[in-house]
Design a protein that fits this description.
Blueprint (H helix, E strand, L loop, with lengths): L7 H20 L2 H6 L4 H12 L3 H15 L5 H33 L3 H8 L5 H17 L4 H13 L2 H6 L3
Helix pairs in contact: 1-3, 1-4, 3-4, 5-8, 7-8
Length: 168
Amino acid sequence: MSDESPSKSQRKRQMHELQDLGTELVDLNEQQLAAVDLPESLLDAVMEARRITKFEARRRQMQYIGKLMRSIDPAPIRERIDAYKAVSRSQTARLHLIERWRTRLLEDENALTELMNEYPALDATQIRQVIRNALREREAGQPPKSFRALFQLLNDVIDVRTADTGDD
């Protein structure tokens, strides 16, 4: 046995990593999967895994995907999946920022001034009216129509750049 070959434990870890990467491939949506450059045999195996519902059959299919991935370079696939996750994190951060602003606007009277300073493109009259309506709806126990409208107004103005920096 030479010192250059990886140990059995290391080979197993690598196989499990490839299998986990294969699981992430199966979880991608159609557009994302189409954008990943996969060999036809691997793409077919991923599509088949999506159709399998039985636990044991799916487990075997995932092992097969891991086996197919041993013959290709997984780095470009990993990079593509990481890029998708980064976009998702950015969108999530933006939605959280909008949600924080909406909560602040409904609870703190000074929040509107701060919001207008940060986002001068907002129509102050319109947003005041929507805030008043949302507060009335909440007090009356009505459906949150204006609450949603406030979110939509903020969504139209707050851009991704702000979500990436974490400012609010």
